Amino acid sequence: MLSELKREFLKLLGEDLEFRYAVIGFIGLDEILKRLEKHDEKFNELLGRLDRHEQLFIEIFKRLDRHEEIFTDILRRLDRNEAELVKLREDMIEGFRRHEEILAMHTQEITKLREDMTAGFRRHDEEIVKLREDMVEGFKRHDEELTKLRQDMVEGFKRHDEILMMHAQEIARLREDMMEGFRRYDEELARIRSDMLGGFKRHDEEIAKLRQDMIEGFKRHDEILAMHAREIAELRHDFRDMLSVVKRMEVRLSRVERTLEKVTLDIEEEAREVLRSRLKEMGYEVDLDLLRLPMVEIDIYGVSRDLCVIGEATIRLGVRSLDRFIGKVEMLEKLYPDKLKPKKVILVYTCLATDEAVRKAREKGIWILKALGDITPFTILES
Fold it and tell me: Percentage of residues in the chain with pLDDT exceeding 90?
């Protein structure tokens, strides 16, 4: 009977909710359950707050990851800019070195040409005095042309010296400006590196103030980047100015080269006309022209039956220029034997020839002449 009552009681407790609450209230557990329910509500509220805090921490970590990526990209850009500036400095130094070598070479050539021209004019004036009685009219025209040529050469040398002096001053100023810019940039990079190290140290020590420090750091970094951008723009502007100066120098040098080329072309035409006349007087009808072949270029070239004429036209003939011409003739004989004949005349038409060049030409059988006559005798060489 008692066991059946127990089973019935337990059954009611399991199936009848109202009976269960009545029993709980009877034994004083309802207050405990209410408190447990309140505790559950507070616990759930705490769990919700913890979830929100966890989401907030996740968001903070994501922002930190993005900030770290931004810093990494900034450092990578700074390294790339530093490498570009180092390469620019090396290119500038190399360009200045080549330019100074070219200017030094030009100065030496101009000085040597001025000395040779002065000596040539002096000897030429003495020769004019001796022959003035026989060729008054011809030497009158020749004196006028020489006077004009001397004035043009003196004026050209004067302008060239002024240009070289101006270029040297401009290059010196440009070098000072570039060195000052590089010094400022190196100092600024050192300050940036110091600020960034200090910022990282503060970031590690004061994690609680992360957001404020990050905003301040970005503000300073933006200002520094803006300043770097301005300095880089100024450096590029200075570099473009330097390029424009170099281009102006190249244009002026090109003018000098064109002037020299024109003088060379004029003397080549004069040489061909004089040689046609002289060869015709000797009984040789030879059509003379420029011979341009791969690896070889001959100023004066012509063929008449079994005779071949090979010549060079130059304002001044020295030993080195004579050796270069002999090398051209040997190259022509080696590479293009079909252009030669059994008999050949090797000649040089010039306004001035050095004594060493004349002696070597006599030994080689080379005919040297100018408009007024022969310097070495006319010689026919046979193969």
Answer: 24
